[in-house]
Amino acid sequence: MRILVIEDEKKLASTLKKSLESETYAVDICLDGESGYETAAVGDYDLIILDVGLPIISGIEVSQKLRAEKITTPILMLTARDSTSDKIKGLDSGADDYLIKPFIFDELLARIRALLRRGPTNPQVNFKVDNLILDPASKQVKRGKTLINLSAKEYGLLEYLLRHENQIISKTQIIDHVWDSELDPFSKVVDVYIGYLRAKIDKAFPDQKPLIKTIKGMGYKIGE
Question: In CATH terms, is domain 2-116 a member of 3.10.129.10?
Fold first, then answer.
């Protein structure tokens, strides 16, 4: 899943990027409100982490402008301001959640998971196709009763495919959501990691039906 961090404190932004990438997320960073707004307006992100006190354009203004353009990407707002009126102002600007600095990273992760799993009706806790189950909270993947050990990128790729079960996902979409904006769009890395994933969840279970499918000239999908 791809996250945009809009945060002007360079050290915090760098720490968030490193920490979130270790949790399988692809992360891009913007250091001011103007570039953050422009990036969020044209990029395809699953979540935006947005600081309130930004230079050029405040986080409140960024949120308002994005919502005015009907961009519905979940926004988690960060701020050092802890008054009730500031929280209300942030949520009224279009933010979906509000976290006070300094915060515990595990709480940030929990808030991110909650926002990412929200659906139009009810949240989905686990993702399941046939007897393959992925639990976003524990980051455990099982096929039947067998635990499957995945690298961070393998897990991120599998989660993205499962969130779009039975949909054809192009290589460009996978790069945009599982890697970051620095990856060459002509890279073969997606094919390589699909191969890694297929080896672990399909070929390792020869008596089970294969779940990852290649759609020639279009991309990949996962489904029964």
Answer: no
DSSP assigned state of 199: I
Which among 54, 23, 53, 14 has a CA at the least distance from the CA of 38? 54
Average pLDDT of the residues in 51-77 = 93
Pick the CATH number of 127-222 from 3.90.1150.10, 1.10.645.10, 1.10.10.10, 1.10.357.10: 1.10.10.10
Q: What is the DSSP string of 4-61?
A: EEE-S-HHHHHHHHHHHHTTT-EEEEESSHHHHHHHHHHS--SEEEEESS-SSS-HHH
Residue 98: strand pairing partners: 77
CA–CA dist 135, 53 (Å, integer): 35
- CA dist 161 and 113 (Å) reads 16
Q: In the chain, what is the straight-line distance between the N-terminal and C-terminal CA atoms, in Å?
A: 22
CB 45 within 8 A of CB 73: yes
Q: Which long-range contacts (C-beta less than 8 Å, at least 24 apart) are formed by 80-89?
A: 80/52, 80/53, 81/52, 86/52, 89/60
Alpha-helical runs (H) found in the chain: 10-21, 33-42, 59-68, 84-92, 105-116, 152-163, 171-178, 189-198
Whether the CB-CB separation of 177 and 26 falls below 8 Å is answered with yes
Which pLDDT value is given to residue 124? 52
pLDDT in tens, 91-103: 888 999 989 988 9
Q: Where are the domains of the chain?
A: 2-116, 127-222
